[in-house]
What does this fold into?
Amino acid sequence: MKKLLMLMAVALLPLTALADSDNKYGGENRGKPLLPKQINAKWQEECGACHIAYAPGLLPADSWRKLMSGLDQHFGTDAALATNENRAITEFLVKNESNRWRAKSAPLRITESAWFKAKHGTHEIAPDVWKRASIKSPANCQACHLEAAQADFNEHRIKIPK
Ligand code: HEC
Ligand code: HEC
It folds into this structure.
């Protein structure tokens, strides 16, 4: 009996650890790490042309698939790519998706995810701060995160512009 109880305890350990990260932000959590060691150069170049190249770990694979299949109508712009480039970039994004996203949701925007909203709530940033000309859009990560382009969002490297 004692042995059985021990076995049960050992079997349950990883389950409780998993449940903890599962529930964070209703399952909409960013990945860790956000960026793999091997970066795809095409992704960096093409997806970093108009804004920072958003790290693959910021969203789940389904978000990236949706986004990459609608590049000709990308938030009001045309960001379409040649088929082979699209395929290579999609592969890179999907392979390095958020490894902590458990929800079935797949938002097109990072800024619509539960983890983003939780980290950027009114307790951290007053609502009128977002309206500053120096920020313009919550998607403009590098306005506040000085090293956002390197997927470094460490709180010590945040400076909210005037
Ligand atoms: C021609 C310019 C352009 C290119 C190239 C481009 N984007 Fe965008 N992207 C935009 C614009 C404009 C927005 C909307 C920004 C805003 O709302 O402030 C956007 C928004 C996004 C967002 C949502 C940000 C958020 O959370 O609000 C994601 C994710 C994204 N782009 C991914 C990509 C990926 C992946 C690529 C490369 C395949 C790419 N973009 C290439 C113009 C571009
Ligand atoms: C108006 C300034 C501002 C903008 C724009 C902004 N952030 Fe933040 N971000 C913050 C602040 C402030 C925090 C809270 C830091 C803390 O918890 O102490 C934060 C926290 C974070 C964290 C958590 C850091 C940690 O170590 O817990 C991540 C990840 C993050 N932001 C990513 C992003 C991404 C990705 C974007 C763009 C899509 C973005 N942020 C846009 C100000 C901003």
